[in-house]
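In the laboratory, one determines a bound structure by crystallizing the protein with its ligand and collecting diffraction data. In a computational setting the workflow is compressed into a single prediction: the sequence and the ligand go in, and a structural description comes out. We illustrate the idea with fe (ii) ion.
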Amino acid sequence: MGGKSFGAAALLLILLNVAHGGKTSPFMRKVRRTEDMPLHSDVFAAPSGYNAPQQVHITIGDHVGRAMIVSWVTVDEPGNSLVQYWSEDSSQKREVAKGNHVTYRFFNYSSGFIHHCTLRDLEFNKKYYYEIGIGHTIRQFWFMTPPEVHPDAPYTFGLIGDLGQTFDSNTTLAHYESNPHKGQAVLFVGDLSYADNHPNHDNVRWDTWGRFVERNTAYQPWIWATGNHELDYAPELGETEPFKPFKHRYHVPYKASGSTEPFWYSVKIASAHIIVLASYSAYGKYTPQYEWLEAELKKVDRSKTPWLIVLVHSPWYNSYTYHYMEGESMRVMFEPWFVKYKVDVVFAGHVHAYERSERISNIEYNLVNGRCGPVKDLSAPVYVNIGDGGNIEGLATNMTNPQPEYSAYREASFGHAIFEIKNKTHAHYSWHRNEDDFAVTADSMWFFNRVWHPVDDSTTN
Ligand SMILES: [Fe+2]
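The predicted complex, in structure-token form:
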């Protein structure tokens, strides 16, 4: 192509992008089948040794980051639920915490012994070593506690959603681990193992998933939100207790924020107040989740935690054809609150692709006024869809056209994101596709805090 015609084509491309406000990335990933890694894959290998702890994962264990829940599975016998731990500078003066274990059955599957133990009264911003498997096969891990809650405390979150256990899932996790921005905790927007895509919801795939992600979940807290693949509701198998495997395997500190169920809760980490919502639990008026959120938003103190972040599985703004408008009823219930309380960003998953919105709201609508449609709103959050972890169901590639004005960037690729809080006013956000090298940023934005620096931070102006 000659220089002139190339220039004209480039100009046309730019004009097209401007015309629709946002950008639909032309990036084409090479087509291949998305399938779960086979059971004999090395990432699923059980640790050696009698009754060795496996599927180790940690999450924040209180409301401010001074506690950590350590969870693991033993398979030969219950063993004990003890955790020995010590801080890096305590010359190995060891403390011991005692937890407990649970088991469950799902159709013809019997779980191992699932241990949960909360380490309390930890010091902020400190490296701790911990050991589990005491009396049989001891395994040692470590974690960093977050800094004390403070308005200018910097902190870096990783964002992963809809991960599953395919070869692509493994690439996503490897990219997150190698990202030079170095996430300190993961905000996970739901859909973990996709065990329910296997015959009889084969819960062995919950175990393999736990072993697969252990290389990260044992060392940094993952904040869990639940997706539809955690429901495991299967009356045809006689399994009618929703979330049964998830509830037994993944404990979260929901009581610390006054919640009554582990599906909606909040934690404060550094300068961020993180609210986890449940797309698959009742949220209509008078329900426990509704009442909890109404009270919770009033408690958020932006002078202490300037950044208000929400995690929810089913997106409210999504311009792909998949799961289109599934999040609409929750949006109608809660969006006016998000604008009133100036939520900075909402991370969702469910749609297996990437999308970032403008700051928009659609809260004028009611049954009689006829006003309906997203409008630019500087008090509204940015909506990020990060359901691109790489699970067995494959990529969502079909988008609605033309790209709606509210969609700032969208691309059908697998990847992860990083939300890097610098201080009370600025956070750098970046999205990283799996097809690129580790340090490459495919989409990015400087977030300006909605309370302390509420100016326009759109990337398309
Ligand atoms: Fe989902």
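Helices lie at 3-19, 167-178, 204-217, 244-249, 288-299, 328-340. Keep in mind that any predicted model is a hypothesis to be tested, not a measurement.
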